[in-house]
Write the C-alpha cells for this entry.
Amino acid sequence: EVQLVESGGGLVQPGESLRLSCSASGFTFSNYGMHWVRQAPGKGLKYVSSISSSGGATYYADSVKGRFTISRDNSKNTLYLQMSSLRVEDTAVYYCVKEYSSSNYFDYWGQGTLVTVSS
Amino acid sequence: EIVMTQSPATLSVSPGERATLSCRASQSVSSNLAWFQQKPGQGPRLLIYGASTRATGIPARFTGSGSGTEFTLTISSLQSEDFAVYYCQQYNNWYTFGQGTKLEIK
C-alpha cells in the first residue's frame, strides 16, 4: 500500500524558514517523480514544485521560485521542501504527491502538513 | 497558464440521484485531465485520469468524459460517501486545478 506521510509544518513568522519532509513507503520511491501541492485554508489546490525520479530536474511555480527548494533522498525514501523567506500568503496545507510513471498525472497524495505564517 | 473552470461551485443532489460536474479548460489539454475527490481533513483521492479512465478501486458509478476543453464527471446513483469536493486538473502543460465543486446532500 502506497503511503506518503508529511511532517515539519508549524507556525512561523514572515521571513523565516521551514523544511517539510515526506516519508514514502509501499513503492519504489527512486522510480517516480514527486510533487508538492498546497491548499490555503478553505481554498483550492495549487501546484508548488516537482522533482524528477533521480532528483536531477526540478520545477517551481512562479509564486515560490527563488524561495523554495525541492529535493529528495532516494536512500531514505524521503522528499523535502525547504521553504525560505516565508510570506503570509504561503499559509496552507502542503501535500506530498506521487506521480504515475511516464504519464504525469498524480496518483497518490499524503494527508498534508499545515504551515502557518503569521506575526 | 491554462485556466480550469469548474461549474457549478455547489451542487445539491439527493442520495440515489445522478450528479453531473463540469470542467472547462482555457485551451486544449487533449485528454490529459484528472478528477479528484477530497473529503474534509483528507488529501485528495484520484478518481479519473486520461479524462475517462477510472483509477484503481474507483466504483463504476464514477464516469469521466470529454476531451480538448470540455470535460464532465458523472456520478450515477449517489451514495452517502460521495458527498465531497471534486477538483479537475490538467496535466498537459504543467499542472493547474479547477476551483472545485462542492457536492452536497439535498
Q: What stands out?
A: The mean pLDDT of chain A is 96.
